[in-house]
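Person: I have long wanted to understand how a fold can be written as tokens. Underneath my words sits a plain record pairing an amino acid chain with its backbone structure tokens. Those tokens are not coordinates but codes from a learned vocabulary of shapes. I should like you to check that the lines agree and flag anything odd. The protein I mean follows directly.
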Amino acid sequence: MRLPGPLSKARAAVGLARVRWLNQRRPVIVSWAITHRCNLRCVYCDVPERRLPEASPAQALDLIDQMARLGTRAVSFNGGEPLLRKDIVALAERCRSHGMSAALSTNGTFLDGKREVLTHLDRLQISVDGPRKLHEAQRGEGTFDDVLSALSIGRGAGLPMVLSVVLTRHNVGAIDDLVAFADSQGASLSFLPVGPVHAFDVDYDSLRPTPAAMRTALREAARHARTGAPILGSASSFEYLAQWPAAPRIDCFGASGIAKLAADGRVFPCAILEHRTHAISALDHGFEAAWDAIAEDPLDCSGCHCTKTLQLNRVFWDTLSAIPLNRLAAR
């Protein structure tokens, strides 16, 4: 059964509400690194170097069926570069056949040749790290044109689009430019400070902004959001982010309502905990067993600086203070 996008998103919200207030543990939202292969070599990312095995097309379809039986309502395909999977259209289609919402995070390179996938998506997320010069300094020459092409294709398909920005010391001062660019492209904007979620073997400390520079960037982002700019974030989430690089532990759906599925089938509470959580493979033991395994592993959580995940958590714990600032500005 294929549901309209807003209805499938509503089902996900109801599922998280049941986790939050009825303690009905289930993997409502699954972020799936469907492959670790990637055609780019971004300066802050070592994902392509991990060379993990990945699910076969038949295994991947079966995992989606298993997730549906367990109550999954939304799947986000990422990587690596998920469009390198030849079966990505079939996977997105299978999600929608179960009434799940489906999202895709891409660098934009291959979208022109995989436009069919857009008919099965509810959201398109495209990685961008700033204006052309800054973006290509972190992602490679010619990659900004791929972003522009992907944005044009996404707009033509009528899909909601999110620009995902990894903040480093090189682009932390480009908030104004990024906001203007997102607005011109009809897209929302999400920020994530560089960190271990991108690389386990890269010296990411050398790429980090200074705390002062990050606080300035966050103040700028919050200021833009209050004027209605398309930035994902609320008063609650920006207040938390302002503590960066400190990351106090927060109430979170990790291991209770959301999960990270790695390319090799291992299931984690989230991407940040991927390198410090005991995990078993859903390919070897089934998704339910892998999901249950992380419930028994104490969360060694150091907090969260991903605005999308943070906002998702805050809206179910902070209620009014978690209303996105740009929504308040529109009132």
Summary: The CA atoms of residues 21 and 236 lie 20 Å apart.
